[in-house]
Amino acid sequence: MSFIGPRPLPIAEAQAIPQKYKKREVILPGITSIWAIRGGHALTFKEWMESDLEYMQKKSIFLNIYIIFHTLFVLFKAGVIKLTGLFRNEVSKKE
């Protein structure tokens, strides 16, 4: 598994996908992907597969950096990652 790449499919789904989408199996699956930053489960199956194929065609260090930063943005926006207290001096005083 890699950090960025197509989202892995369950085995049953992977065996049932149309042949034109099997190309996505050539590269390692990833923890995050274009699919994840474009809406994830809100996308249709076709949009998901086409996003993976698009990533394979356009794969570059710049696209990977974009996906990483956009993934962080999505996680912050959803409240999965919080910066509360990170930049404040939170020294507790004991009396």
From TrEMBL:
Keywords: Membrane, Transferase, Transmembrane, Transmembrane helix. The chain crosses the membrane at residues 65-87. Coiled coil: none annotated. GO terms for molecular function: phosphotransferase activity, for other substituted phosphate groups. Belongs to the bacterial sugar transferase family. PANTHER family: COLANIC BIOSYNTHESIS UDP-GLUCOSE LIPID CARRIER TRANSFERASE, SLL5057 PROTEIN. This is Galactosyl transferase cpsE.
